[in-house]
Amino acid sequence: MQNLQNVICITDRHLCHRPFQDQMRIVAALKPKAVILREKDVMEDTYRILVERILPACEENGVPLIVHTFYRIALDMGIKRLQIPLAQLRELPAEIREQFDVIGTTVHSVEEAKEAASLGATYLTASVASGGTHEYGTGNKLLEFLGEVSSAVDIPVYALGGASREQLEDCLASGAAGICMMSRLMTVDGE
Question: Could you tell me the pTM of the whole model?
Answer without folding.
Answer: 0.93
